[in-house]
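Collaborator request log, item 7. Partner lab (contact: R.S.) asked for a structural prediction of Disintegrin and metalloproteinase domain-containing protein 10 to inform their binding assays.
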Amino acid sequence: MYKNDHQGNVVAGSKVALKNAVLGGANIRVVASGINGGAEQDFLVSGVNNVNIRGSEIYCTTGLFNFVNHLIDGNTIASNATGTASVAWFAWTPGSLCPDQQAPPTYSHFTDGGTHSGLLANLAAAVSLGKAVQLVRRDLGYLTGLDFLQVADNGNIVNGQSTWHVGQSYASDHVTYNTEVPYRWLSSWSTTGRRHNQRWAYGGQEEIFHNVDHSSLDWFVDPCWRRVFSHSDKGVNLKGNIDDLVTAIDQGHRVRVQVGTKVMEARALRVAASYVQAQLSDQIGQKGGVGEDKLDLADEAFWIWTFVDTNGGVYQEHFFYGNNSEAAPASVTSSAVDWFVDARPWNRVLEVDGAGNVISGSKADLQTAIRSGANIRLKIHNSTDAQKLYIHADNAIYYSSTGEDSITQSIRLLELQAGNTLVKPPRWNFYLANTKGGVEKAIYNYAQENSFISKETTGNDLIFYADDSVPFMP
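Returned to partner:
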């Protein structure tokens, strides 16, 4: 849709079109090249967590970018630099059809929750059908996806959370990360207009600031999701069938899961014969009660990590945000569950064995997909392991010096032990998948600054998938 050079000059496309895409609830992806004077043949593709008209994650249309390296779950800054990059911006806007046909927001309201346009009932119905939602504050030119969604108050409120923001500082022509007091930023948004924000310092459970305000919001629904399987709390088939779910996962499709009135996208999917388990790890606990603040984030923020399976099992762990103490005991219950997959096309681009030998597809095609801003997903499988692991690549990169090989990184996964239960104290698993062969897994303790435990490399077979959801190429 738009491309700028290191100085912010237009190379292709239209900055106005990019701004309009942001205000239209678009999914934005960026591909940076020539970072800080590096080779223009080196490409990094990344999803965007939030967008402001002044910049984005933290690449800017001025050509400037900023990065900060923190020790995992700590407040120590290992490095911090600002430089320049050539950046291509890709967008697709939630539409009324699949393939996309741009549409207005499904629901829009004023700061007091009064309707501006659309029907709240339509938004609630869309969320209950597993649809993803993008949120726009038109007054600020601010866009964010919602990591967690729920229909509350008997359909009279839709609430969402964005749980992966990082504190930023704004200058006249660019954005940088806040390094004076580094913090993470949690938000709860409701169709009543109410917004609750919490800012927590890196390292430990120290709250920097929290506030409640009211916002006029546009809620854009992505219609390109369909239900493929529903089952009872005993795993008994109600609609669709598990084979369709497993087939869709093995074709690379993303998965959203609804338990009760709550919907999230799976961060990881573990698949065995006629069995799927989903990791849902983007939810922050709520205050609860009956007051107008019942959907606000809990005063002492805590993660709710949920693992759902196709037998009806719902296993939850509750750990304080930035603290590896349990906020509540683990729970094991059962529930009826609905499983949804995205309806956009995915391609199996490349399969390599543990030594990096190509089994099918092409390494060059994977690089083309990265350069084109595609979403990348992976299947990791070892012939000795009964379960296959499917994960999303948070970013992907390749260098001119590596020839046809590429690397992907997945950084929001929790470590499970035998029986698919959480290792305690909790651990992060960061996956680095290389088309040269093998998967490197780095293991870190949750909420500890000097948290590195170990690193292991396995010779897994790898399948890389790329989607076609970004129709505009600069």
